[in-house]
Amino acid sequence: KPVSMNAFELISRSKSFNLENLFEK
Amino acid sequence: MGCFSSKARRQFPGHEDPVSLASQTAFTVSEVEALFELYKSISSSVIDDGLINKEEFQLAIFKNRKKENLFANRIFDLFDVKRKGVIDFSDFVRSLNVFHPNAQLEDKIDFSFKLYDLDSTGFIERQEVKQMLIALLCESEMKLADETIELILDKTFLEADVNQDGKIDKYEWNNFVSKNPSLLKIMTLPYLRYGTSLFYFIYRCD
Question: Cβ B180–A6 below 8 Å, yes or no?
Fold first, then answer.
């Protein structure tokens, strides 16, 4: 549930923060 | 070092000797060479000028160059160490170094602080966190009422902003991530661990 998390937990789950895509062709 | 001839240096501005880069980072020389292969592929995806521009960076992350994204923009700006509007090879290696499993925890904390400090004032302000939350909601097509967002921000700043001045300083951030280590998970890329798929990019030097 979003409200039970702090804002940074929510943000850090964003797919856009995932740099792993850089390594995938 | 046939792979890194003077010709390669001319074609790739900001190119630094892999031995030198390896000595300053957690990467081995072979890993720096592998990163060079990855770098070459990203930097030639839109304009083949040996540098990574924002469009190429977005394309590498989202496979879609048109998608404007707050997070990708911020990460690009932090990778653009020399503030030239492009990422050269040494910027690329030094920035990815922070995401190495063996990189210093301090560097990871520092980078994550800068990531959230959107306007680089030295503080993470409530407005910046709200901006990122809204961007996240747009991206995930999740809908939350403004009051709910404010509640999340209240809770977050109650925990993180110890002196309650409405902004999170570096010291408060250090304490906050120590209590919430999962926040640093995004700061480590398993791909950079020795012996993983990073090595698919290794250039075969004849």
Answer: yes
